[in-house]
User: What shape does this take?
Amino acid sequence: MKRTIIASFGVVLLAALTYGAERNLRFAKKLQIPGLPEVVVVAEGDFEPRSIGSYALRLYGGSSKKSSTDDFLVGLIRPRNGTVEAVKFDDIDGDDRPEIVVIIRAVGSGGYLSADAFRYRTGSLEWVASVAALDKGADPIQALRGKFKVPAGRNSSTQTDTRESGG
Assistant: This one.
């Protein structure tokens, strides 16, 4: 009887440790804005399901020698239907300055894409456009450019970030 209790306790402990050791798959990335000292952090919401919830977009001055994220400037929280898949910097409105584009993939058999574009200009962060329900093979950057009627070949992505987390 004592062995059964000890064995049961061992199995429960092992299961708890395995669950606790599971890698956090939540998207959280820190990126430098091309050509600027500012740093952007994009992270899915804490304690939310992976398939739906919110994400935060936070900007920091990036010029501190101690930490690139110790001088918060501005931020926004947006809803998401899916998981954040990538962050890109691309000129979608034709002004020759990159917007921040957050690409989200819906969970499920369709794998549909959506994207939100944000404009950062000296201490101000503004949501400028969204596209949703795009086919899984579609190019969300081109779809966003279509909202501004920007030619297809203009200013390709300057920086891309994918699913790796960290900072």
Confidence is low (pLDDT under 50) at residues 162-167.
